[in-house]
User: What shape does this take?
Amino acid sequence: MQQTRRENRDERSLGELFSDLARDLGTLVRQELALARTELTDKAAEVGKNVGLLAAGGLVAYAGFLALVAGVIIGLGQLGVEWWISAMVVGVVVAGVGYLLVRRGLDALGRTNLKPERTIETVRDDMHMMKEQTP
Assistant: This one.
């Protein structure tokens, strides 16, 4: 039974072989595209999280800037009243926290690898397999 299948398979015409190859290649391309889509979606989610850190850091730094500006305005307006010093201290602290958040987000984005590594590897494997099967 198994030998009959092999004989039938070996007796396929060149057109049938090319038809099978085209169908298999189409399936392979669709699978590779699905893998690439999945992998890129995962990478985009990671980048989105890091962009969120950047945005949060930017907002906190902006709040710090506003506090510094308020401190300068109050200081100039009151010349010597103590509460402007507190506005300056709060502004420096908030700006420092904002800087740390922005720095962390930038560092994380710099470490993010956006290449679809699994897809590239499977395409290489597929190419290698096709070369081995081609006479």
